[in-house]
Amino acid sequence: MTDQRLPSLFDVEEMELSFGPQHPATHGVLRVQLKLDGEKIVDAKPIIGYLHRGTEKLFETMPFPQCIPHTDRMDYVAAATNNQGFCVAMEKLLGITIPPRAAYIRMMLAELQRLASHLVWLATHAIDIGAITPFFYTFRERDAILDLFEEYCGARLTLNTMKIGGVPFELPAGWTERCSALVDGFPAHIDEYEELLTNNRIWKKRTIGIGVVSPEDAIDWGLTGPPLRGSGVRWDIRKVFPYDRYDEIDFEIPIGKNGDTYDRYLVRMVEMRQSVRILRQCLDRLPAGPVIAKIPKVLRARDGMVYGSVEAPKGELGYFIVTTDKATEPYRCRVRPPSFVNLQLLPDMVRGHLVADLVAVIGTLDIVLGEIDR
Amino acid sequence: MSDNEKTPPDQLPDTPEKPAGAAPDAAPAGGDAPKSAPTDEEKAAKIAAAKAKAAAAKAAKEAAPEEPKQPWETKPVTPEHEDASADPDVAALAAAVDGSVLAADRFAGDVTVTVPADKIVDICRALKTGRGFKFLVDLTAIDWREREQGRFDVVYWMHRFDDSKRIRLLAALPAERSMASVTGVWRTANWLEREVYDMFGIHFEGHPALERILTWEGFNGHPLRKDFPVEGIDTGAAIYPDVYPPGGGPLRPEELEQPEPKADGKGES
Asked: What is the count of residue pairs from A and B with beta carbons less than 8 Å apart?
């Protein structure tokens, strides 16, 4: 019955499409070179490097403490954990133990930052898929968190809020009360977001079964953070290699079951609740004492190489620092960016899906291009 | 003591106050002072107060050592390098692949094993299948510019889930700057090796698509090499095609035909 005169009405040729770097759904300057068969993705190739600023090269030219402001600019929606990673690695290199109060302040800042980062993720992820409302809700709470940061260190985004050996400032008067109020009210806000999305039929249709990653693949591809946990691997640097004082804190690591976009969404939502739990414990137990260890004015390292890592909101953020003898600056400072490694899996996750799902998968990986390109 | 007598009277109050801060000096100076100005009662009172202060400080100092100082109150102790060849994983690796362990070192808890670059795939596979290091955390390189036996070290940093153990391999690159890719062992290595290629110019044989990743194709140079200028290079190929050839990066000095600028300009002015 086929009409020979209309042979190619539905035979669509493969088409190449550049998705980004100026597309709002790419979360920055990511470009994905797509091969499309109609609306279906045949192949995808992420092209990165538009934001490459040579941060690792810059680290080699400046004394250790001066590196910290530069770490802010990598994952710019989670600056506090970036600072923390560098400080943890440096303290390992120099053999510094930080005072308990400093560790608790650090943990509070890091967990607030995790909340703020996850709120940005939720807002942008939802808006990419078409749910605009969560954006307004999450940014309301994120602003309250940024207010706390501003009160503590004067900055809202690029915080520069940690020092090698502790934190630079004592908490301002009334800060713990305001933080406490925020923490107490936060679970209700998470309920609000979940009410909007968790059982939403459209949300479920757009996320369940999209971008499935098996636990074996996740490990082989080196995923860390929520993408790894969403696939069912219970692994968190805060538990595995506790830094600061996470070993004194009681919290759980949520994991997913199916490794799809919906599970990663659920994992991050539970993570937010766990962050609130950590914050509550930190506020209750906040010890007295100094906020910075006694360290020499000029930090000199011996020859050696260390790797220190923290659980950033995006995954394992590691700093590999190589020093020569009596050096005041790193000879080489490699950053192990979680987003960079996580993004590698993008082609495998979207192959066979539709272009609209690519947007969902980019959102679920929670990438920040500042960190990928460094 | 003789100094004390020579000092003009108006500066005298300074001298007893100084020792108040530094406890050990307080006693002799304070004891001497009354002789030089016995009539001034005010001064005597001041000195007595300083003396009491110093004594109190001394007493406090003596009382303090009873409770041990916390680690953050003392000078940090830099970690030491230790031999790690007794480490079970290092020993197992040495047994599994002949001549694989050139040196093993433990620093700040990190185990670093120096391995020969030409056996890297065998070593990585032995560690992954034999010892359970399923997770490649990081792969990078270090440029030791002045080192004679090969300039680059390629660094592998891997993780085992069972007991959360990590181990680092350091492969010193021979002069030809190419080594086997480990993408067949861990797929993570794909982009990480591309980055090392881009930043250091190390070739990985057997890599599925060894392209530049952070800089663009045709960029001239490898930014993280120590001889690459920190301020960067002018890549204005489009504006000055004679100096900056298409593809980016300046010509090397020997490639430039004539370094024209200064001599002519000076002569004219």
From this structure: 127
